Amino acid sequence: RVKDEGGGQFHEYEPSLHATAEERRKLELSLRSALANNELFLNFQPVVNARSENLVSFEALVRWKNPDHGIVSPAKFIPLAEDTRLIVPIGQWVMQEACNEAATWPEYVKINVNVSPEQLLEPDFATTVVQALSRSGLTPSRLEIEVTESIFLRDADVARRALEQVMALGCSVALDDFGTGYSSLGYLRKLKFSTIKVDRSFVQGASQNSAESLAIINAVVAMAGSLGMTTTAEGVETAEEAAMIRDMGCDKIQGYHFGRPMPVEEVRAVFKRSETIRTA
Ligand code: C2E
Ligand code: MG
Ligand code: MG
Ligand code: MG
């Protein structure tokens, strides 16, 4: 890390930092052509009713497979896409693709689509939603948009107006990763979210008997109930966690216990099977 350049001069250099910047630059270049090269695709993760365990929705989760970089995690390329504004065209593609797919599902199954703050700040965000709905033929009430608390950090009013526009279309809005951001309860008063998604970290904490996590989940469930909002617990990995979450009064559950994010072919097969069962 510290290299002797001779003459008693020591220069600090950071090979790891350098590699990261270089890797980032390469990744950004590849991401710029990812859409055109058909390298993006969607996975879908089931969300179930906590009591009946019936399917209520699928969350669309974008994936990127590149010849040079392999499968790149969204945790890595979404922040990069946000920094470079590539999230705007990528987000449009996700919205259209997710609506197209959901339009082929049974009416009672909704689709959840993640939206970044950068997308909401685009003046034509609502137009892209209108377009995705009309091109796919999806009923607006079947689309739920997921945003995180980070939308309230910048231009909160612009973001709020954009969300109100899509709510006026009949879509709903969920507050994702609740409790992990710079939470301020004030905006729960300003925007009528349909769902609060309790972050996976609280579910994990609760399953390890953390009194704080349990108290926070209980408080969020009670608060959501009084506000007329529902709750979804994220990251439920075991039957024990599912039972605990259900007993705490969460309305919906998402997590590996009920299903991992799956490729579109698998989703189609699920519905094909259930059709066969119904007609049999
Ligand atoms: P998110 O919206 O909170 O999505 C849930 C993440 O938790 C997903 O990670 C999912 O695979 C993971 N997960 C679900 N159940 C479990 C579980 O039981 N255990 C564990 N350990 N993890 C679970 P993923 O797919 O890697 O996505 C990460 C994040 O990337 C998402 O978090 C979302 O913020 C963002 N993202 C994904 N797709 C999109 C997109 O199309 N647009 C935007 N703007 N962001 C997206
Ligand atoms: Mg989400
Ligand atoms: Mg989440
Ligand atoms: Mg998350």
Automatic annotation (TrEMBL):
Residues 24-275 form the EAL domain. This is EAL domain-containing protein. It comes from Qipengyuania pelagi. The chain holds residues 489 to 768 of 768 of the full protein.
